[in-house]
Amino acid sequence: MPAVNPTPEQLEAFLAGAQDDTPVVMINLLRFRQQAAYEPGAGAQPCSGREAYERYSTVALPMIQELGGRVLWYGRGACALIAVPGEQWDEAVLVEYPSRKAFLAMVSQPEYQAAAIHRTAALSDSRLIATTTVADLLAQ
């Protein structure tokens, strides 16, 4: 089932660990609309889903960096080797935040919320998975 924004239950589960200062890496899986689907009255010029996501990114990326986060990896989907039949993602992004609290501070800012309309308009489906490090396998 397509999902673009978190449900109240998903947000509540994420908030439960917000006092933890452990760094979190967000796995973003993105599927773009051919044409961005803005809500009536949004005031945005028509564009593709990918272009709408770029509008969102021009605001979100500096905010991520300001709070001490960074993009670890960004790539285009090539082939879903293990997935539900027909499932394909256009892009994937790994973003590290200093903590869940930092992520929540960013998404609570009015500037971010104003830019988020572009993200919502851009995507036909997405996944946002919060992860924490279990072990540093590269150090072994």
Descriptive report:
The chain is built from four helices and four strands. By secondary structure, it is of the alpha+beta class. It starts with 7 loop residues before the first helix and ends in a 9-residue tail after the last strand. The chain has a four-stranded antiparallel β-sheet. The protein is globular, with a radius of gyration of 16 Å. It has helices at 8-15, 49-66, 100-108, 110-122; strands at 24-32, 70-76, 91-97, 123-131.
Poorly predicted segments: none
- Count the beta strands: 4
Supply the helix-strand structural class: alpha+beta
Strand order of the largest sheet: 2-3-1-4
The overall average pLDDT, rounded, is: 90
Helix content: 25-40%
Q: What share of the residues does DSSP label as strand, in percent?
A: 15-25%
Based on Cα principal axes, name the global outline.
globular
**Mind summarizing the main beta sheet?**
4 strands, antiparallel
Global Rg: 16 Å
SSE string: HEHEEHHE
What count of helical segments does DSSP give?
Answer: 4
Beginning-to-end CA distance, first to last residue? 39 Å
Q: What is the fold's blueprint, element by element?
A:
Elements: H1 8-15, E1 24-32, H2 49-66, E2 70-76, E3 91-97, H3 100-108, H4 110-122, E4 123-131
Antiparallel strand pairs: 1-3, 1-4, 2-3
List keywords for this structure.
4-stranded antiparallel sheet, 4 helices, globular, 4 strands, 140 residues, single chain
Give a summary of the structure in a few sentences:
With 140 residues, the chain is of the alpha+beta class. It has 4 helices and 4 strands. 34% of the residues lie in helices and 23% in strands.
